[in-house]
Every structure is written in structure tokens, then in C-alpha cells.
Write a structure and sequence with these properties.
Number of helices: 7
Structural class: alpha+beta
Shape: globular
Largest sheet: 3 strands, antiparallel
Strand content: 15-25%
Radius of gyration: 20 Å
Low-confidence stretches: 147-151, 232-237
Helix content: 55-70%
Amino acid sequence: MNTRYCTRFYSAYDVKGITEFLDRMAAKGWILKSKSGIGYKFEKTDIPYFRYDITFFADASKENDYLPYGADRYFEMADAAGWHFVTNDNKMMIFISENPDAPQLETEPTVKVDIIHNSYIHHYLFMDLILVFNTWTAFARMMDDHKSSLAIELGDLMLCTAGVIGIINILSYFIWFLKAKKAAREGWFYRTKTPILEFYAMPVVFTVMVISLMFNLGWKASVFFIIVGIIAIKTAE
């Protein structure tokens, strides 16, 4: 099989985590073809060595066909330095190099932080707030149910868990943002890692939520809502 699909719950600002993951895949002989949120598509390659780097374009959109004016000139300079454009995920530009001595690509720190912040506010904050809102409604239902019965709906429990993760996501992001803004003013980019709870717990929570949805609505309705959700996320990106 020459194509492989992976999901990883890295934060949008975890540049280090994403590049390290891509480099690990490269060491196994897999080269990135496309990235969309948590989804990664790889293809098998015979290239003996390559590594990744990430930069950001403020005016980029989701599709490669809608890169901002002047991107070609940047790509030419990157090619001259040994870096070749692979794909973009919204404003995130992913490059590859077969040269171990190629200099690191680096957007000016204040620009990079502002682009990441703009991307988070417009594409990720809303989803985290939805998780927090669902937590409030699910917790209220759980309290009402507890008064009449000791039984607690699994779906409500998962919504509460997802909401806690949403709160952690928001707090973690803005803690990073404040530190990153300070570091950018000093001339360097503050790197951080995805919160452990987000990275490891989110896949489990979403899997259980989907299973709970299927038991409550049936598989046809579940598939319908999942497809609608994917379309909504793709449209937002």
C-alpha cells in the first residue's frame, strides 16, 4: 500500500510537534502529500533523506489554488535555499528539503505569532467555545438526571469531558499567545507543545461520542451528522 492516512491532534500553534511528527514519518519512508486540520495524507517514497519546515502566509486560504500574491517569489527564494513547497493547511505552509544543511525557514517572529493568532481566532476558537457550551448543557442535564436517578448518560459524560478539554485548549492557547508575543518582541519565536490531554484524550472522547451518537440516533443519522460536521469544518477552513 503506497498511501497512508493519519490523524494527529496537534494544536495549530505547535510548529515543533508537527515538524517532528513529519520528520518521524520521513524516517519511515513516508512523504507528506496533503494536510487538513488533524488529517495527514502520506505516500511511500524512495527519497533516502528529507526533513520539513513550516512557515506562515497571512493571506493564504485553505486550498493550494488560492495562495496569496507574491507566493511564487517566496517559493523561488525557498528553492534557492534548498526548500521545496509541499502543501498548505490554511495559512500554514509546509516545505521539504533533501539537504541536511539547508538553512531553516523563518517568518519574522511577530508576523508569525500574529498569523497564528488570526488563524486560531477565526478557525479554532469557535469550536472550542462550542465544546464549552455543550459542557454546560450536558452538566445541567446530568444534575437533573442525578436528582431522579443515579444513571448518567454516557453521551453527556463525554460532552463534559470534551468541554473540559475545550477549556484547557483555550487557556493553553492564550497562555502560549501571551508568552509568544513577549518572545516575539525580543526577537525570537516561542515554541510550545500540544497539551497532553488534548493530544491523547481528544481521539478517545470523539470516538466514544460517535459511538454514543450511533446508539442514540442510529448509524444512518450518525453518518449524516458526521458528514454535515465535516462539510461545515471544511467550509470554515
